[in-house]
Write a structure and sequence with these properties.
By secondary structure, this protein is α/β, with parallel strands linked by helices. Helices cover 49% and strands 13% of the residues. It has 46 helices and 29 strands. The strands form seven sheets. Strands 3-2-6-7-1-9-8 form a seven-stranded parallel sheet, sandwiched between helices. Strands 16-17-15-18-22-12-23 form a seven-stranded parallel sheet. Strands 24, 25, 26, 27, 28 and 29 form a six-stranded mixed sheet that branches. Helix 7 packs across helix 14 and helix 22 crosses helix 23. The chain is globular and about 120 Å long.
């Protein structure tokens, strides 16, 4: 068997055993490949089974993808070793293996063991059939419970509660207080023991007796002050060094810079709050003396910027240190009663909410994790009996994307991994960008810093392996990312250093050598409104037009990218992605700019999913199935493409009954169209009584040919994918334990009305330049990445609350002095705000890292800045390699972070010149150069803003056209295409009547027919062979596969079909009963009976390229339609069955089967797209021979 080629580090990941293993896998390092290979090493060499492992991923899509990769690898190995019985057994086991999200694992554990959670004296308890609340429903329930909790809170006011209500919770109503409680409750859900956190913080606020220096707030603020003072001391010394050799400048500036730096040094050594206050008072800034006539020199201007920046920072320090330690403690004691009341109120709310969920026999997402942890871990921290049993199930626990773990999830992993002895975790902390979802990257970082290298660790000792070789991107991309992050990422600013171990190392040797893949940085100077420029180009417009123009240029040049076959090809719009921190409304401007350049684009507007025609129609149909006496959805469905009522028909119906519901008027309709619709509606309403919502939707799709109708429309593939996504939504609804059509429709309508409907994401291949957020791009890769909107300022929304929350520091409130009507931040709040801001910026650094590492072959970064010259000059004063952590902290946007080190490169001369700096001595070039450009925003003015002269110059000149007599003999070059049908049946390969019936109006090639007398003249009573075949197919549509396999039982079913008028007398007499009995006794029928999902006479419609059916060289598509006789699910995949009534001998079976192969391929392709499942097998069953042939 061919060996998978692995690097030494990847090989170590696959083979290393003997203890907890942490794999730090950089972007594009092949972590999924090594995870799969490690699993198969266990299977093949240690004879484990794939279901001996618990594999955790963080999304359902990732779990499904990973299961698919494991199944594909298993298939590949079986093909190489077909006689390996152990591998064969894994084929079934892979689909029952525990490859799931944390939520799914916890849900399954709870449903198995909810009885262990019951407490004595408790009125309600969770049962195994509990329902999982979706986020919108849980939010609504929390709001209702909190309203009741607040009512009780106001009825029993004490001084602390009054203070809380009158100050922090003050407003026109109690909304502010409710938001405080909900915010605190939500943030506590990532803790393993929220109740313990509340108790500990209540105790801390109750015992404010020591000095300020003993508090965590003082320690945090002092650490920050020392850090900043040391930064400015170093920066001033560096500036002083630049004056050496210039006596006048050294005397007037250098010596004074050194004096100020020494006083900052003293502040940086402060050990106490009072010591810091005294040191700050001693910081001096002597008066600078500028040498005569040199005030405008770039070097002098740069020194002045450093000096003024240092003085500004000193003012900010003074504002913080203006409060003495005793005053700080007085403020804390003043707000302590309100904080204790807030903690008690939150604890009461949490308990009331818990009881309400138990009463409803329901749980929300965070409940599942906390209750699972309670089942697994005893109060003393040891494993419970169940915890020991669950841990014993698994050979090893494998956790993917471990950097996104939170505290409670990590505790669960430890509980099921025998106290961390057999856990394999893989992730990249540099890509941890979900702190807003309560992910805690410090869990990964703590292990990363503590674990020893696998080469040094003893047996059983915790160890780590680094995968730093990147197999995704060209060297230019990696060098750019390494340059930026080695200079701006540090332990102080970013929570980790970026050294050789963390750097990306080039591994994609398959890329051909090129010299046109430089990383690009473009600074666009946006003009502001002034006397000279009263109509400046907006920043967004200028940036969007520049990006569109750059894409257009690359497309026109045929910029080469590596194709799927490894060779270079000209780039296409689909190869580009525009990444932004938060696209939002910016998408429209970019779409317009791209349209101006004739560049197609695509982006998801998830909020519009429910307003698409196909989803609106299906939702309307569900509403009238539930209650047809709703005029708006009823008329919408009647007018839809599914039923096609025209306005005149609706008017005629209403004229029969001018009052009452439209449904009553419809019931009076005597035309065939109305009766047909009512028959379908009655049938669906009958089905709704006993089917789940998912099953009902499947029935609607089948009976109304929903996928076929909408799939044949413009953008049909996207419409079909939307419909399938809606089907998946109904499955999620059922998985949450909720049942019933009314509940489904009501919930969706409430969510849409409140704007809280789930964002539906489809995976339809985009047909143009993609525009997406950086978060959505995580895990993806693109040939050309354009990173724009770099001037977007970091958000301050998380720091607006009157009480900040931090997992370690606790609560940070403002202090409200009601007597003086003033509000100011307490020292506790300032400590929390500084800490939270630093953590938020560390997250933004990781977001930037994710964005830059999405590119495979070219990275283009675009930064648009108003007053760009001044900002670049400010950054020049802080620029260095590496950039000092406090300089990074001063960055206001991602563009600042990129320019801080970039200004040191020789290629950035245009940036330095733009800032008035022309020196070259301090700047250097790397082996892989950048392209750095500066643009004037006026270059991208809208056409309406350009001069009339330019407009006239571009206007085409009208002139008389000469007569062209050759045009009279013109022959249309696409005449052949006009003769090709727009619709074909799948059985154009071998026609069946039913396939041709659903493809009405299809133009078929002419064929000669044998002329014969009609039956009424010929007196003929016997059916032809084709008619007998049709009769047999009609029986197979409704045959009970579970009936006794004997002639009597089959005849009874045929008689039943005759009685129901599904068969004529002639057809019933002509059916080959023995052939059906042979089928019922066959292995194929046995397999069908074992399946939980069997579908018959399944109609489909899909668009296919015309080249699939003709030698025409055209890009057109053909609508392919057909009906699948039967398919069933087996081991999570589909088996397609086609019944054949041809009279063939056994010797002719293989030849005839090949004749039908294209037809079966068409059926398989259709089912794979519609059902979203792989077709594992295609079977032809020949009734005349009683044999099946597998293709």
């Amino acid at each position: 068997m061919a060996k998978v080629t692995l690097t030494p580090q990847q090989q170590a990941v696959v083979e290393n055993r003997g203890g907890s293993l942490l794999v730090s896998a950089a972007a594009g390092s092949g972590k999924t490949k090594v995870l799969v290979e490690r699993l198969f090493r266990y299977v093949t060499e240690e004879h484990c089974n794939v279901d001996d492992f618990l594999i955790i991923t963080y999304t359902k899509a990732a779990a499904a993808e990973l299961r698919g990769k494991i199944a594909a690898e298993l298939t590949k190995r079986l093909a190489q070793q077909p006689g390996d019985q152990h591998l064969k057994r894994q084929v079934l086991r892979v689909y029952r293996a525990d490859i799931k999200t944390v939520d799914a694992f916890c849900t399954a554990l709870l449903r198995e063991s909810t009885h262990l959670l019951a407490e004595e004296g408790q009125r309600h308890a969770l049962t195994a059939d509990f329902r999982v609340l979706d986020e919108s429903e849980a939010k609504l329930l929390r709001t209702r419970v909190l309203e009741r909790t607040l009512e009780a809170f106001y009825e029993e006011l004490d001084p602390g509660r009054e203070q809380l209500a009158d100050t922090l919770g003050a407003g026109r109503d109690d909304t502010a207080l409710a938001e405080l409680v909900l915010e605190l409750y939500d943030k506590l859900q990532s803790h393993a023991d929220p109740e313990k956190w509340l108790r500990e913080n209540r105790a801390a606020w109750s015992e404010l007796t020591g000095s300020f220096d003993e508090t965590a707030y003082a320690r945090e603020l002092l650490a920050g002050l020392r850090r900043k003072a040391g930064h400015w001391a170093g920066l001033l010394r560096s500036a002083a060094a630049r004056t050496e050799g210039d006596e006048a400048l050294s005397r007037g500036y250098g010596e004074k810079f050194l004096t100020a730096s020494f006083s900052f040094d003293a502040l940086a050594k402060s050990e106490s709050w009072e010591g810091a206050r005294q040191a700050a008072d001693a910081v001096v800034f002597p008066r600078l003396t500028t040498p005569r006539g040199r005030s405008e020199e770039p070097a002098v201007v740069a020194l002045k910027r450093v000096w003024e920046s240092a003085k500004d920072e000193k003012k900010r320090m003074d504002a913080l240190l203006d409060v003495s330690g005793e005053e700080a403690m007085e403020d804390l004691r003043a707000v302590a009663p309100a904080m204790i009341a807030l903690l008690e109120l939150t604890e009461t709310f949490a308990e009331q909410y818990r009881r309400e969920k138990l009463r409803r026999n329901s749980a929300d997402f965070s409940d599942q994790e906390h209750l699972a942890l309670r089942l697994l871990v005893a109060p003393d921290g040891g494993p419970t009996e169940l915890g020991t049993q669950v841990a014993a199930r698994y050979q090893e626990i494998l956790v993917d994307e471990y950097q996104d773990t939170n505290e409670v999830q990590n505790a669960i992993f430890r509980a099921v991994s025998r106290d961390g002895q057999n856990i394999f975790t893989v992730g990249d902390v540099k890509q941890s960008i979900y702190r807003f979802r309560l992910a805690d990257p410090t869990i990964f970082l703590e292990k990363y810093n503590r674990f020893r290298s696998y080469e040094e660790a003893a047996n059983g000792e915790e160890r780590k392996i680094l995968l730093s070789k990147n197999f995704r991107s060209r060297r230019e991309i990696l060098d750019a990312a390494n340059f930026i992050f080695s200079n701006i990422l540090s332990q102080e600013m970013g929570e980790m250093d970026y050294g050789e171990d963390e750097a990306l190392h080039f591994g994609a040797e398959y890329y051909p050598e090129r010299h046109d893949c430089d990383t690009e940085f473009h600074l666009i100077c946006a003009r502001q409104r002034s006397g000279e420029e009263d109509r400046p180009v907006k920043k967004l417009t200028a940036e969007a037009r520049f990006v569109a123009g750059r894409i257009r240029t690359l497309l026109d040049e045929g910029y080469p990218v590596t194709g799927e076959d490894g060779t270079l090809r000209p780039c296409r719009p689909e190869d580009f992605v525009i990444l932004m921190r938060s696209p939002g409304s910016r998408k429209a401007a970019y779409a317009q700019a791209l349209a101006e350049r004739d560049v197609p684009c695509s982006f998801e507007e998830s909020g519009d999913f429910f307003h698409t025609m196909e989803i609106s129609v299906v939702m309307g149909l569900l509403e009238i199935i539930d209650n047809p006496r709703q005029d708006v959805p009823l008329i919408a469905v009647l007018r839809s493409p599914l039923f096609g009522f025209v306005p005149d028909e609706l008017a005629a119906l209403r004229s029969q009954q001018r009052t009452g519901d439209f449904y009553d008027a419809l019931l009076l309709g005597e035309d065939g169209h109305s009766r047909a619709f009512l028959a379908v509606l009655r049938s669906l309403r009958d089905s709704a009584a006993h089917l789940s919502v998912r099953e009902l939707l499947s029935e609607i799709y089948r009976k109304c040919n929903v996928l076929g109708v909408f799939g044949a429309m413009h953008r049909g593939a996207e419409r079909k994918e939307n419909l399938l996504a809606f089907l998946e939504l109904s499955e999620d609804f059922a998985r949450a334990g909720r049942q019933g059509l009314f509940d489904f429709v009501r919930t969706l309508r409430e969510q849409l009305a409140s704007g809280e409907a789930a964002a539906m994401q489809t995976t339809h291949a985009s047909s143009g330049v993609r525009i997406m957020s950086i978060h959505k791009s995580k895990g993806l890769e693109f040939p050309v990445v354009i990173l724009s909107d770099l001037a977007r300022r970091f958000s301050n929304m998380d720091f607006q609350s009157s009480v900040l929350v931090h997992p370690q520091l606790g609560l940070g409130p403002v202090c409200v002095d009601a007597r003086r009507h003033i509000q100011y931040p307490t020292i506790a709040r300032q400590a929390l705000e500084r800490t939270l801001r630093r953590e938020a910026k560390a997250e933004e650094l990781r977001v930037l890292y994710v964005a830059m590492t999405r590119a495979k072959e070219k990275l283009i970064m675009v930064h648009t800045q108003a007053n760009a010259g001044g900002r670049v000059a400010d950054l020049m004063a802080l620029s260095d390699c590496p950039v000092l952590p406090e300089a990074v902290d001063s960055g206001k946007c991602m563009g600042d972070w990129i320019m801080l080190p970039l200004l040191q490169r020789s290629e950035a001369g245009a940036l330095r010149a733009f800032a008035g700096q022309n020196s070259e001595g301090r700047f250097f070039a790397e082996e892989t150069p950048w392209t750095v450009c500066v643009h004037d925003g006026l270059q991208f003015a809208a056409p309406a803003q350009q001069s009339d002269a330019a407009e006239e110059e571009r206007a085409p000149q009208r002139e008389e056209l000469p007569a062209d007599f050759a045009a009279l003999s013109y022959r249309y070059p696409y005449a052949e295409q006009t003769a090709f049908p727009a619709k074909l049946t799948a059985t154009q390969l071998k026609g069946r009547a039913i396939d041709e019936e659903i493809s009405e109006n299809t133009t078929l090639p002419p064929r000669l027919r044998n002329l014969c007398k009609p039956k009424f003249l010929a007196g003929k009573t016997a059916l032809t062979g084709a008619e007998r075949g049709t009769a047999l197919h009609l029986v197979m549509q409704d045959l009970d596969f579970f009936c006794e396999p004997n002639e009597q039982s089959v005849r009874e079913q045929i008689e039943k079909l005759r009685a129901q008028r599904k068969l004529t007398d002639e057809q019933a007499n002509a059916v080959d009963v023995r052939a059906i009995v042979r089928f019922l006794r066959s292995d194929l029928a046995a397999r069908i009976r074992k399946s939980k999902q069997v579908e018959r006479e399944y109609r489909f419609s899909l668009l296919r390229p015309v080249r699939d059916f003709s030698s025409l060289d055209a890009d057109d598509s053909v609508l392919l339609q057909g009906v699948v006789d039967c398919f069933f699910e087996e081991d999570g995949e589909l088996v397609v069955v086609d019944f054949k009534t041809d009279h063939v001998s056994r010797a002719q079976l293989d030849e005839r089967a090949e004749h039908y192969r294209p037809q079966l391929e068409a059926y398989s392709m259709a089912l794979t797209r519609v059902m979203g499942k792989k077709v594992k097998e295609k079977v032809l069953y020949f009734f005349s021979a009683g044999e099946e042939v597998r293709l």
